[in-house]
Automatic annotation (TrEMBL):
Stretches assigned to the ABC transporter domain: 4-230
Keyword check for Nucleotide-binding: yes
CDD domains named among the record's database cross-references: ABC_DR_subfamily_A (cd03230)
Keyword Membrane: no
A UniProt-annotated Pfam family: ABC_tran
Protein name as it appears in the record: ABC-2 type transport system ATP-binding protein
Length: 281
């Protein structure tokens, strides 16, 4: 059974089409990234999958169940990291989690376990307004995972965080993946997607324009593989890294006039730009 299944989803708001015939599936233990620029419809798709928006067309399933028929019990299998809202600023980390734990009827040990997991146990008595942005985000992740959900949704989980906190969050997500959690995340950050996700979908103007492993997508766009040559007389030019240009490169090398040669492989970011003419911001 797929953890998440999205079948032919289309959605418009005020006659503006946001999602057009979107389909994909996510397995247990898989990290799947949805990449797209601001306003591409990423949050809308999460809301459809968790049954909070009824789509104009198509169906989504979570753990085999139609999203529009999820019961209260089904929701206990899901974890959500949707934004930084929903924390009580003047309550401690512990108290914030305790409020949620009572909804799930979790024992205190589960809260402590989650706080340790995100490395906030020593700060458990601090109030939320004393936490940094990265600590708040880790608290939200603790809240989303303390009941051990089978499916975790994260909307821009590391947006605006420093590289060290981002790395910590990536390690946490990889650990959850190892335990079999299916993880669906949205991001603008193609480096995050490349290093973290098993598969990614590139979303542009309502359509999925690519969906595969980051390596497979990048290797499909080998024409973006280039070589930049700088000569000793400070002339610089970039050519495609292909068979035909190997001859040009060889001839240039024989002149002994080369200062440096840099090769540049396609990245998800450069693929996205070449396909859409726009950056992932
Ligand atoms: N309830 C709504 N009513 C009208 N328009 C909406 C509604 N929800 C979303 N939209 C519009 O749908 C489009 C997609 O919004 P969405 O929040 O899904 O994008 P996003 O990809 O998550 O963007 P970001 O990366 O900036 O969070 C936007 O143009 C937004 O204004």
């Amino acid at each position: 059974m797929n953890a998440i299944e999205v079948r032919g989803i289309s959605q418009s708001f005020l006659q503006k089409e946001v999602l057009n015939n979107i389909s994909f599936e996510i397995q247990k233990g898989e990290i799947f990234g949805l990449l797209g620029p601001s306003g591409a419809g990423k949050t809308t798709l999460i809301n459809i999958i968790i049954g909070q928006i009824k789509p104009n067309n198509g169906k989504t399933f979570v753990l085999g169940k139609n999203s529009l028929e999820l019961s209260r019990k089904d929701y206990t299998q899901l974890g959500l990291v949707l934004d930084q809202l929903g924390l009580y600023e003047r309550l401690s980390c512990m108290d914030n989690l305790q409020l949620y734990a009572s909804l799930y009827q979790l024992e205190k040990s589960k809260i402590e376990e989650a706080l340790k997991y995100v490395q906030l146990f020593d700060d458990r008595k601090k109030t939320v307004n004393e936490l940094s942005k990265g600590m708040k985000q880790r608290l939200i992740i603790a809240r989303a995972i303390m009941h051990h959900p089978q499916v975790l949704f994260l909307d821009e989980p590391t947006s605006g965080l420093d590289p060290a906190t981002t790395l910590k969050i990536h390690e946490l997500l990889l650990e959850l993946k190892k335990q079999g959690t299916a993880i669906f995340l949205t991001t603008h950050n193609m480096e995050e997607a490349s290093s973290l996700c098993d598969r990614v979908a590139l979303l542009n103007e309502g359509h999925i324009i690519e969906c595969d492993t980051p390596v497979a997508i990048c290797s499909r766009y080998n024409q973006l593989n280039t070589v930049t040559i700088t000569t000793k007389d400070h002339h610089q030019y970039t050519i495609q890294n292909n068979k035909e240009n190997a001859k040009v490169l060889f001839e240039e090398m024989q002149t002994e006039n080369i200062l440096s040669i840099h090769s540049s492989e396609p990245t998800l970011g450069s693929v996205f730009i070449s396909l859409t003419g726009r950056e992932l911001i």
